[in-house]
Amino acid sequence: MLQQRTRLLSSIVGACAAAALLAGCGGGPTPPPTGNQPTQEHPPSHEQTASTKQASATYGAFEPGAKAVTYNPALVPTGAKVDLTSQRTNGRTKITVNVHGLVPNREYGAHVHTKPCGATGEDAGPHFQEKADPVKPSVDPAYANPQNEVWLDFHTDAQGNASATTEGAWSFDTRQDAKSFVIHETHTHTEPGKAGTAGGRLACLNAEF
């Protein structure tokens, strides 16, 4: 009887050892399968599509090819600096401007204009408008407002520095009539007959939006 049990146990151990050579015994790790494996599909990305445009320059006198021009050095001194960033994300645009070295503790108006900077402030053309006012000049609050136009008014600190940010659904990606950023003499008016006006044009920056 003991010999039979011994032979039976030996047979089981031998069978397990043989099986281990093929598939492993006792729940050991299974070798990785060979051959081409199906590629795991990744879920679609939900990241927003974004594009950023930047313009940085130092204001100076007009010359052909100048990126930033001052028309009134008493209020926008030669050597003052400007940095503008336009970031478009899923149909909306966020515009931020930083200025350095202007007159301290002073308010300025600022807008996006339709044409590039030129020898005079008027060369930059009118304000960009998402929906164009059929009456020119545009002073109707229904058209001259910070949603239909792009207003970036600011007030400088004691060092002459300032920043401003605005955001809207302007269709810059399908149009070619937003070419410059213009600093004006006063904050922008909002009342009928004066809406959108902000005094003289002090300086201009060529920029893309």
Automatic annotation (TrEMBL):
Keywords: Signal
Superoxide dismutase copper/zinc binding domain segment(s): 81-204
Pfam families per UniProt: Sod_Cu (PF00080)
Keyword Lipid metabolism annotated: no
Molecular function terms from GO: metal ion binding
UniProt keyword Iron-sulfur, yes or no: no
PROSITE patterns: PROKAR_LIPOPROTEIN
Region (Disordered): 27-55
N-terminal signal peptide: 1-23
Annotated GO biological process: superoxide metabolic process
Family: Belongs to the Cu-Zn superoxide dismutase family.
Protein name: Superoxide dismutase family protein
Lineage: Bacteria, Bacillati, Actinomycetota, Actinomycetes, Pseudonocardiales
